[in-house]
Fold this sequence. Notes:
The structure holds two protein chains of two kinds.
Chain A: E1 2-4, E2 7-9, E3 20-22, E4 25-27, H1 34-43, H2 85-94, H3 102-109, H4 122-133, E5 161-162, H5 201-211, E6 222-223, E7 227-229
Parallel strand pairs in A: 5-6
Antiparallel strand pairs in A: 1-4, 2-3, 4-7
Chain B: H1 3-30, E1 39-44, E2 62-79, E3 82-89, E4 98-101, E5 105-112, E6 123-124, E7 143-150, E8 155-160, H2 166-171, E9 175-181, E10 191-200, E11 210-212, H3 216-221, E12 226-229, E13 242-245, E14 249-258, E15 263-268, E16 272-276, E17 284-287, E18 289-292, E19 296-303, E20 308-314, H4 318-323, E21 326-332, H5 371-390, H6 415-423, E22 425-431, E23 434-440, H7 447-458, H8 470-476
Parallel strand pairs in B: 1-2, 2-5, 3-11, 4-9, 10-14, 13-21
Antiparallel strand pairs in B: 2-3, 5-7, 6-8, 8-9, 10-12, 14-19, 15-18, 15-20, 16-17, 16-19, 20-21, 22-23
Helix pairs in contact in B: 5-7, 6-7, 7-8
Amino acid sequence: MVNIKGGVFLPLYSLDSQKTEVKPFLMDVYPVTNADYKKFILQNSSWRKSKIKPIYADTNYLHQWNSDTSFAVNLALSPVVNISWFAAKKYCECQGKRLPTVAEWELAGRASETKPDATKDLKFNQWILNWVSKTSPKVLPNVGSTFKNYYGVWDLHGLVWEWTFDFNSALTTGESRGNSGLDNTFFCGGGSFASKDINNYASFMRFASRSSVKAKYGVPNLGFRCVKSKL
Amino acid sequence: MNTKPFKLVALILITGLFISSCNSNTGKSKKSSTSIEKIEGEEIAILTDAPNVPPPITRKHATKVIVNLEVIEKEMEMMDGVRYNFWTFGGNVPGKFIRVREGDFVEFHLKNNPSSKLPHNIDLHAVSGQGGGAAATFTAPGHETKFSFTALNSGLYIYHCATAPVGMHIGNGMYGLILVEPKEGLPKVDKEFYVCQGDFYTKGNYGEAGLQQFNMDKALKEQPDYVVFNGKVGALTGDNALKAKVGETVRLFVGNGGPNLVSSFHVIGEIFDNVYPEGGTTLNHNVQTTLVPAGGSAITEFKCDVPATLILVDHSIFRTFNKGSLGMLKVEGEEIKFIYSGQQDDRIYQSEGAGQTMPDEPTIASKPLTKEEKMTQGKAIYAGSCQACHQADGKGIEKAFPPLAGSDYFASNPSLITRTILHGLSGKIKVNGKDFDGVMPKQTLSEAQIASVATYVLNSFGNKGGEVSATDVAKQRK
């Protein structure tokens, strides 16, 4: 795990008065891999594919594994996907850790290779957008294959989406144009006047992705990593 | 006399009158223009890829139609040498054509392929209800959602993805058409085709090779690099051209996914006998060019009067010749000369008071120009007469206008340039390994002008060089 400096995070659809203060925390360097997850499964058999309660996962759970405890050799070091939020949360708890909040993840995710805050960096944002435009490969690359950011964290962008603790606090609804219940200057289909990072379309897409999932979902390109509060 | 029963009967009568009149009032308000038909049976919708259209509906009752549509994100060709990450409904751009009947009850299943990077949804303009279905169909990769609606209104409707950022999802190709036939159906025609225009925004310029990325900045400025029919340059040209016969009636279901541009849809060489403007119910006739709004449609119908290669265009014409909004409909059959004769005559024209010529056009008998002078004059003539088709860089347009740049067509025989300008050229030729099957009209230029522009072409665009004289041209005029 590495140290992430604290800071002020402004969620995408918010006024200046809604700034969130993020305390410094420790973050896993890599997303959790299939090999990592196997260790968890061997010690917690109720989370096996054949045993898991339907309330905790849908039928996509560990779809890429051949059996309860085995998977193709080339998947060992790639991030584990098709795991539900419940499973990810449990895994982290078993390690004395927890899932990152959206604010923590986005703060760490602002960093490029060289800058702690690359939100205004066009090249960096374009690189992320390019990745977002492509389909997911059939076999996900190993962790440590994209880039190491300013904090020393790998693969926050360019590999898989990642579960966060409060993923369902996002404000986009499925109907991206008619949020009449919310302030009208806020989000519409493509970016709103009140949104803080008009250029940060990748951020919009992460919010859209978070809004589209439920806690029990397994999604082929959604994995996770853990964090820990500093005492 | 005991008036009580009298009063009672009177009371009952009056009350009865009120009740019956109330009933008939409510009866009238219930009978609205959208009376729901009884649903009989169920069927699975036949979906087709452009330019094909599912067969016309023959049943005379409303039914339950099950639509299964899958979102697939897919890298495909935009143009020869140019690739793009398209997001599609059903694997192609535009998405599948859906055909139902007014009053049908549609059970809609939206699937998102597990390989998709993002969640997607669908807004069908034929749906009355929140977001046209978008709220109900927000689907994560590897999942499926379902919702149902009644097709209350007939018409030709666009459908598109409405996931944020909506402009980007549409800009990557997520649109298609759903036709709700009126209860009595559409009049029969011989051929029906599905044509959908869209604008695309890439990091590189038009034609720049490689995998091109979506460019948000250009999309915001509404400055597309590609404006195409059916998802790519050349989707409806050459071997992919639409076909019909002389005498046949053709109906075009025309959509415009946008995301930004409005189309001025025109078919060169034909007139629309019928137009359903904006895909609605009103009928217009004798229309040359009809507007197709972004996120809208139009239905155009015409009878193919004479054999011709009809050219489908967006008449905002730079889009057509420089960005790809060009399609073809080849009509075959016997010529009907009294409708269209083709060229009947071509001769020299001398205006009144011959001898007065424009200062920049040397007369035939005057001193021949130097090579330098020919280059200057040739360049101007090229810009005025040739560039529209063969392009400023001489590279032409794939499957439509052959390149002059480094062309092997006249490399071994430069006099072919002169011959082609003088007499025109039609039919199949091969230039630099690529096939062309079009028509170049002959140019009405003087011998000196032809000599100049031919010399210009020979010495430009990477061609080997050479010079053509006005006398050479005169000899070839026979």
